[in-house]
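User: Continuing from earlier, I have the next pair ready.

Assistant: Great, send them over.

User: Here they are, in order.

Assistant: Folding the first of the pair now:
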Amino acid sequence: MGSVTAYETTAGKRYRVRYRKPDHAQTDKRGFRTRREAELFLASVEVKKATGEYIDPRAARIAIQDLAVGWLAAKKATLKPSSYSVLDTAWRVHVAPTWAHRQLGAIQHSEVQAWITGLASQRSATVTIRACGILAGIIDGAVRDRRIPVNPARDVGLPRKMKKKRRYLGHAQVEILAQQCGERALLVRLLAYTGLRWGEVVALRMHSIDMLRRRVLIQANAPFVAGRIEPGTPKSHEKRSVPFPAFLASPLADWCTGKDGDELLFPGPAGTYQRPPSFTRGWFQEAKKRAHRIDPSIPTDLTLHDLRHTAASLAISSGASVLSVQRMLGHASAAMTLDTYSDLFEDDLDAVAQRLDDGRRLASVGKPWANGGVIGDQNPEIC
C-alpha cells in the first residue's frame, strides 16, 4: 500500500500520495485539498493495479507527432503508395498543424469536436472524415499501449458524406469521344468497356491480352502518385481476368502484331509507363472539347475515371449481374459494387414491378374459365 502525507503550501495544507507502480517504481501525486480525497485516489490506484487497469500518468505526456511517426510508418508498410499518399497529405495539411505538438493526455473530446466542426465548415465531408480518422487511428494505438484509458477522438459528430453524381456515357458517346482521341482511340474504348483503372491499363503488356478467351489479365498497376509513377501489384493485391467485347478483338490483335510480349500495350515516351493527361490540358482535354462540340451531352469535365463508371453502367444496362460487375471492376465485395453504383439499379425497380405483373397474369391464365367467371383486375374484391 502507499501512504498519504500532509505538507504546507502558501495556500494552506495539502496532501501527497506516495505509491508504487506495477513495475515497483515509486511515484507520487500531490495537491489534494483533503486527506479523504488523497485516500480515495490511493484506493483507486490500488484497485486498478489489482485488476490490471492501471495507467501511468506520465505515459500520456508524449506528443501526438511522436506517436504519428510509428503510425504512419506502419501504414506505409501495408498500404499501396496511392493510398498512403492520401493519408500522408491529410496528416501534414489538416491534422499536424493543430495536433502535432499537443500532449496526448491533454486532449479533450470537446476540443476534437470543435476542430471537426471548424474543418467541416471549410472542407468537404470526405476530407474532414479522413482527417478525424487519422487522429483517432493514432490515438487508438496509444489506448492499446495503455497510455490513456479512452480515445478522445472517437464518437465525435462527423459530417454526412454525400455521394457524388457520377457521369456515364452511352455507346454512341463513347464512340464519338474515342474517335476524337486519335491514336489513343483503342485505349479509350478499352477503358470504357472493361472498367480498368488508369494505372492498370498503362501497366498492361502484350502478353496480358488473351485473344482466345477475349480476356485482359490484370497483373500489375502503375498509378501516378505525388508526381511520379509507382509500379506495383493491382489494387488490393488481387489479380483478375476482365472480359472485353468481341468488337475490340480485331483492333487489339492488329495493335499487338509484330510486338514483343513483354512490351507495354500502351507505352509512353521511350517505351516507359504512360502518365495520365493533365486535368487542365493534354490530349484528353482537347478530345473532350471536340467531342462536346459534336455532341453537347458529352460533358467537358469528364474524367478518365468516369470511363470506369461508364463501363459499369454499360455492363449493368446489358443485364450483367452485380457479381459479374464486381469481378470485372475488381471490387472487394458485391456490397461495395451495389453501394457505389446504387443509382444504376433504380431502373430495376420498374423491371421488377413489370415482372411481378407478368407473373401474376401468367399464373391466372385459365382460371376464369375454370371458375366460370373472371378474376384479377375485373374483380373489385381483389386488391
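And the other member of the pair:
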Amino acid sequence: MSPTSSTTPRTPPGRPAVAPTAPRARRGLRSLVLALGVLLAVTTLAGPQAVATGPSPARATVVLVHGAWADSSGWTDVVHRLQRAGHPVVAVANPLRSLQGDAAYVRSVTDQVDGPVVLVGHSYGGAVITNAASGSTNVTALVYVAGFVPDVGEDVLHIAGAGSQVPVSLDVKAIPPFGEADGDIYIARDRFRSTLGADLTSRQTQAMWATQRPLAYAAASAPTTSTAWRELPSWSVVPTEDRTITPPAHRSMAARAGATVVEVRSSHLVHVSRPQVVADVVRRAADATA
C-alpha cells in the first residue's frame, strides 16, 4: 500500500499530535467533576444530620390528670406543645369518684407505659398523683399544676386555704341511689368564672361550666394514704391569682414537698390560660430526671 493511502491522520505542521480517544477522556473527566460537585453540594445542604448515627433518646411519656369540674380536653393546648417537643402524651379521664379508686386507675395507666413517666396533676388531680405514684417503678417526676400536694391524713376539702371561694360556689346534688349518703359537687354557673377562670373569657367558662364533670363528695373528703412527693422530685406551678386554692396554701404545700416552684400570674385554670408556661415546666421536669 502506498504511503498516501494510510488511514493514520497526519498532524499538521506545528500542531502537537492528539490521540483519537482524547475527546472521550475529556467528557469522562467532566462527568467525574460534575458528580463530585453534586455530592459535595448534597452533603453541605444536609449538614450534620446526614452523618448522624443511631436513634435519638426516647422522651418521657407525660401523663396528664385533670381535676374536678373539668375533663381531659382542658389539657389540649398543653398536649400540642408537648407533642411538638417529642413527648408521648396521655391525658387520663380521671373518674372523680373516690381518691383511692381514682389513684388506682391512674396507677394502672402509668404501669402500662413503656419507659419513664412524668406524672402531672391539676387541682384535685394533684391529690390523685400524690397517691398514685407512691412506689412506682417508672414515674420519675411529679408536676403539680395549681394542684393539691397533700400529706398523709389530709383531704382536699380542708387544705384549699382560708379565703378560697369554693365553699360559697358549690352546687351539691345527690347521687342516686345513695341520696344524702353522698353527693356530686359542681360549681354553680354564676360562680364558675370568678372561682376557677377569671382570666378566661366568659364564652370559654360558660362552655366549661356546661361540660364540667362533678367531684364526688366521697373523693373530696377522703384522706391521703401515700405521699409520692417524699420519694420523687416535684415541681409546682403556682397561679398567683388562684381563687380555688389560695396562693399561700400552694406555697406552703410546695415548700413542704421540697418542690421547685414556678409562679405565674393566672387563675386556677392556668393550664388553659397559660399552656406554654405549663408545658415548659413539664419539659423541665422531664429533662431534669431523664
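Worth noting for the second one:
The longest helix spans residues 22-46. Residues 204 and 232 are 35 Å apart (CA to CA).
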